[in-house]
Specification:
The chain is mostly helical and about 240 residues long. It has one domain. It is about 65% helix and about 0% strand. This is DUF2270 domain-containing protein.
Length: about 240
């Protein structure tokens, strides 16, 4: 067998130094393994993306049903809308947990895209992370969540759930005011023996907390793809 140091591999060459010998040597199967691993990660990203969409779909469906029933008759209690707020908040918690799992696999695909695929296409730009292979190896050995629960909640609130909860809040306010014009709105807001002012205060506090979670400044840990910079002009069109 010939000595491997006598071949033409140059570890300092721009098109080989960052990818590593195993990724460019035709005699090894690591490149094929990475290709299969990448396809597997993409499939898992798609699966978890569908699970996120399913949670959102059920939240929207339930909200639509509650809104329809709440305004179908003046005899229907207003607190069904508050129950809807609680249930949608539960869906928010479920989706935030799923988003943290989804981000694990999306982060892996971004690492491979940024450091392997992008560098293979244009080695002159180098890699985003010098030790990306070690980082990816550690994550395969001991998978870890990349984003906190607070960041996951804030992400799903900004993307989906804050508008949904806002619609329910507006509907509830309309239900206890304009929809029942013959009664004082504080009286209408009562739930059993709970005074209306207490109910309104509790709802207000809940929404202040939601706004705080959504807009509290924090360092972004999730690996995004489209949030940084301005839209590029890669696909130019003739005017």
């Amino acid at each position: 067998m010939s000595d491997s140091s006598g071949d033409e591999f140059d570890p300092t060459a721009p098109d080989q130094r960052e990818i590593g010998r195993e990724m460019v040597d035709d005699s090894t199967g690591l490149g094929s393994v990475m290709a299969h691993a990448y396809r597997g990660e993409i499939d898992r990203v798609g699966t978890w993306r569908q699970r996120l969409d399913e949670t959102t779909k059920w939240a929207v469906t339930l909200m639509a049903a509650i809104l329809t029933w709440a305004f179908s008759s003046t005899d229907n209690p207003h607190y069904i809308l508050l129950i809807g707020i609680v249930v949608v908040a539960i869906f928010l918690g479920i989706e935030a947990r799923r988003y943290r799992d989804y981000d694990v696999f999306r982060s892996r695909t971004r690492v491979i895209q940024e450091n392997l695929l992008a560098n293979a296409l244009d080695p002159s730009q180098g890699t985003e992370s010098h030790d990306w292979r070690a980082e990816l190896s550690r994550d395969y050995r001991r998978p870890t969540l990349k984003v906190s629960l607070g960041e996951a909640l804030a992400n799903r609130l900004r993307r989906v759930y804050l508008p949904l909860l806002g619609v329910l809040l507006v509907a509830w306010v309309f239900r206890i005011t304009a929809f029942a014009p013959r009664q004082d709105w504080l009286t209408t807001a009562e739930i059993g023996r709970i005074p209306g002012i207490v109910v309104i205060t509790a709802v207000g506090v809940c929404y202040v907390v939601l706004l705080g979670i959504t807009f509290w400044p924090r360092e972004r840990r999730a690996k995004g793809e489209f949030r940084e910079g301005d839209p590029d002009d890669w696909k130019e069109t003739d005017q």
